[in-house]
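Action item from last meeting closed. Structure (511 res):
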């Protein structure tokens, strides 16, 4: 199992302080069926509105979904939007003790008008912004620094999320970075679109997108340039501003990672059906912070961030992605390269991740099916049974007897094929999700560990003869007995081959 998957399997709570520009996003939904009579503009017939934390508040929400305890440090206005933002963050478990009120500026409030064209799909039509970009008063800077300092002893990571709304002044950024460096707390920055990153100097990491990186470095790249082309840009940013790690996010091309003392590395991502890129940068910052708080190396932290951001762009609007959902996605994506054979410990982790991560993919809990056998000489009867077993749920696990177990059950001349071959052949079947090997005489240990929703066995058995059957039933699952294909069995096949060769079978029972 990779280091990333091991970390996801043993994910621990962590603490993050988020400093930056806090916003309230308002989504006004309606239908668009006609143009106005007095102007050539579409008419939005409002159906409902909803509020969502945005900007730095979005980073906080993402971190909560990643199991973090979060302190928000920033400013809101003395207005209804500021009150709504505080309530929304508090309701989701974010501490707003560091969210100060500035009566001289409004809460940044973005009103998004979202129309359903012909009642089909949501499409953002227009946005109305209420904000101030004036630099925050030095008196408030000192109070914000005090809020950060009060949490330094218990903070694992500090995130600076800059939308150029005036909060992250050079005084504030440098004050946070200096005190964090003194305490050994990493500072990760999602920068504003600026030509000069000097206010971020000394930060642990920075995560510009391709356009922001080009602007900050003064180096342009042609559209469609490969990820490697951004290495000189990352090097320029790193050297000018004394930053440990530069992560240039490159949309479908993944990311370019430059870590001090290492060669530049490209970290690929998976192509996604992009629905809305809003919030992808916030998700990258949150996931990187989470990964580093868990002790991941930079490459794995970027892999985690890529996966999280990919899931984010598949959503409309800013939707926090749970760590279980990210875990599930990485597991499923890696299966193509890792193959399907798992140890029991690995399998338990993966099944748990599937069950915990189903919520944002489907409202229906995934059904895990388990079938077992020796599968010594794979034949049409096996394939038929496994296909039908897979149809009883969403994920089919095949538990297969190890060589010593087969020998005890079938006799000294079996198995014909060693476990490595049998497991690999089973893994090549499209209907099989995972293969696990057990060396005991029965698969009951596997069944109790996996807790399948459906246990499958051939109809030649009675339920009370099947190891683990009662356990599955008592846990709320069911046992399915499937008819076997007439005339197809491993024992019969072996006997026919040996008879043709003039050799005794030396076997017992069926496969």
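Sequence:
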């Amino acid at each position: 199992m990779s280091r990333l998957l091991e970390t996801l399997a043993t994910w621990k709570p962590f603490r993050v302080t988020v400093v930056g520009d806090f916003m309230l996003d308002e989504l006004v939904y309606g239908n668009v069926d006609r143009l106005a009579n007095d102007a050539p503009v579409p008419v939005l017939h409002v159906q409902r509105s909803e509020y969502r934390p945005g900007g730095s508040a979005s980073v906080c929400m993402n971190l909560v979904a990643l199991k973090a305890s979060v302190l928000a440090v920033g400013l809101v206005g003395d207005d209804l939007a500021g009150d709504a933002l505080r309530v929304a963050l508090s309701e989701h478990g974010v501490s707003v003790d560091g969210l100060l009120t500035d009566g001289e500026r409004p809460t940044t409030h973005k009103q998004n008008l979202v129309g359903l064209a012909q009642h089909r799909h949501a499409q953002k039509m227009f946005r109305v912004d209420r904000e101030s970009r004036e630099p925050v008063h030095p008196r408030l800077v000192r109070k914000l620094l005090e809020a950060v300092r009060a949490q330094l002893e218990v903070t694992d990571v500090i995130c600076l999320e800059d939308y150029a709304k005036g909060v992250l002044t050079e005084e504030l950024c440098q004050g946070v970075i200096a005190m964090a460096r003194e305490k050994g707390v990493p500072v990760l920055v999602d920068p504003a679109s600026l030509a000069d990153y000097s206010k971020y100097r000394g930060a642990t990491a920075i995560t510009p997108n391709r356009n922001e990186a080009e602007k900050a470095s003064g180096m342009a790249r042609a559209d469609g340039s490969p990820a490697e082309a951004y290495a000189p840009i990352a090097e320029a940013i790193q050297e000018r501003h004394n930053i440990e790690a530069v992560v240039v996010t490159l949309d479908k091309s993944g990311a370019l990672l430059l870590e001090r003392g290492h060669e530049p590395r490209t970290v690929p991502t998976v192509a996604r059906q992009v629905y809305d890129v809003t919030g992808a940068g916030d998700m990258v910052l949150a996931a990187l912070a989470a990964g580093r708080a868990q002790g991941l190396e930079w490459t794995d932290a970027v892999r985690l961030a890529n996966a999280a951001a990919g899931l984010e762009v598949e959503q409309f609007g800013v939707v926090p992605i749970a760590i279980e959902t990210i875990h599930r996605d990485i597991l499923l994506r890696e299966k193509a390269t890792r193959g399907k054979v798992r140890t029991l410990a690995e399998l338990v982790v993966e099944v748990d991740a599937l069950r915990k991560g189903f919520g944002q993919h489907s409202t229906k809990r995934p059904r895990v099916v388990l079938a077992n056998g020796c599968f010594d000489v794979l034949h049409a009867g096996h394939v038929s049974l496994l296909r039908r077993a897979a149809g009883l749920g969403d994920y089919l696990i095949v538990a297969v007897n190890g060589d010593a177990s087969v020998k005890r059950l079938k006799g000294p001349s079996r198995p014909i094929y060693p476990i490595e071959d049998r497991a690999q052949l089973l893994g090549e079947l499209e209907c099989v999700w995972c293969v696990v090997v057990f060396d005991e005489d029965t698969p009951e240990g596997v069944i109790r560990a996996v807790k399948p929703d459906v246990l499958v066995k051939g109809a030649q058995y009675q339920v009370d003869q099947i190891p683990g059957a009662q356990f599955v039933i008592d846990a709320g699952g069911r046992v399915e007995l499937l008819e076997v294909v007439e005339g197809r069995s491993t024992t019969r096949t072996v006997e026919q081959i040996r008879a043709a060769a003039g050799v005794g079978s030396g076997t017992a029972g069926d496969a």
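Note appended to the action item: The chain has two domains: 3-338, 344-501.
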